[in-house]
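hey team, just a heads up i'm posting the complex here instead of the shared drive bc the drive is being weird again. everything in one block, sequence lines first with there labels, then the predicted structure for the whole assembly after. its two chains so it's a bit long, scroll down
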Amino acid sequence: QKEVEQNSGPLSVPEGAIASLNCTYSDRGSQSFFWYRQYSGKSPELIMFIYSNGDKEDGRFTAQLNKASQYVSLLIRDSQPSDSATYLCAALMNYGGSQGNLIFGKGTKLSVKP
Amino acid sequence: NAGVTQTPKFQVLKTGQSMTLQCAQDMNHNSMYWYRQDPGMGLRLIYYSASEGTTDKGEVPNGYNVSRLNKREFSLRLESAAPSQTSVYFCASSAGQGSHGYTFGSGTRLTVV
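-- predicted structure starts here --
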């Protein structure tokens, strides 16, 4: 069973701080990884994806991938109350009949306190 | 600029009733997916359609059927609803084989009593 694991939280950070969200995955064959943000009662929206080892930056968001450790993280700099949401990590299955399917973690709830 | 459209947004069913959840995308995506989301369980794949004319089971297909009507539309049918199917259902689509992620619809909140 291929799995993506996340700490459910809640993760609470003060406004302006860096929020660090982490994710591990079990399938070494997975090559691409995604971070989604989901506000309460809403659908998931894609923030970033990463497929190369190292860091990828987009505005206040940085995704980090370490394939050797099977570890993905999302850093949110200068956190704002509007960043309060559940963050879902997902891994893309890349083989056989499941190719193209995303396996999601259960999400980490982030709360940014003013 | 609609993206992925799901109907209905809310539905209450009695045990044993049937219904079809509709999903349509206007992004010319090849692949479409149905997920359910339950508290503490995350998003779980029910069925997917990698391309028009094909459908396959995901992680939790029991009690559901799907139809890929054409490239745009992918419906999910509950033939005999059970309380265990109370959930939020999301339809999603992707351009290729998910390499740039999925676009999700707004969801259907289904309650089976």
